[in-house]
Amino acid sequence: MTFGLVACETTESTGDFSCDVTRSGSTVILDERLSGSASYISKVTAQVDDYGYDYVSVETELWYANSAYASEECSEQKDNARGWKDGSVDVTCSGNYINIYEYDEGSLDDYERDFNRQCEEAYRRYESGDLQL
Predict the structure, then answer these.
(1) Which residue in 5, 77, 110, 124 has the most C-beta neighbors within 10 A?
(2) Neighbour tally for 123: CB within 10 Å
(3) Is the predicted pLDDT of residue 14 greater than 50, yes or no?
(4) Over the stretch 46-85, which tens digit does the pLDDT of each residue have?
């Protein structure tokens, strides 16, 4: 038996840009970084509520070197969270960091697939010079 095995589904890295998707047990993690400019780290964990229904909790941390951009992104994320009247999204901001906590009915497989696509698209944009903040 193997315990603690981490499978790296997608790893895109070149110079200043990296994007990794890993899945281990009941967790999928996206770690996307543009060196010295920004980072996007999202951890999705499968959960079961008190009634036996499956859901995922999503913890995302965004960081931007540019304070004005971080402030603008914070405002946009808070506006988005207010749109979820059920309270399933919460946003806190501190300095250049934005932390987003949410609950979703999606599956780990869905998130893993979406994160892999996100890495592939971001890598293409980086290579073509279109990945900008």
Answers:
(1) 77
(2) 20
(3) yes
(4) 999 898 889 999 999 999 999 999 999 999 999 999 999 8
Number of domains in the chain: 1
SS3 64: strand
Per-chain mean pLDDT for the chain: 88
Q: Are 127 and 14 in contact (CB under 8 A)?
A: yes
Separation of CA 114 from chain center: 10
Report if residue 131 sits inside a domain: no
Given a contact cutoff of 8 angstroms between Cβ atoms, the answer to whether 127 and 18 are in contact is no
Does residue 70 belong to any structural domain of this protein?
A: yes
- 2 found inside a domain: no
Cα atoms in the Cβ-side hemisphere of radius 13 Å centred on 30: 24
In a domain, 129, yes or no: no
* Residue 98: domain span: 7-123
| Dihedral sign for Cα atoms in the order 121, 27, 32, 102 | positive
As a whole-number percent, the residues of the chain with pLDDT over 70 amount to 87
- d(CA 17, CA 15) in angstroms, rounded, equals 6
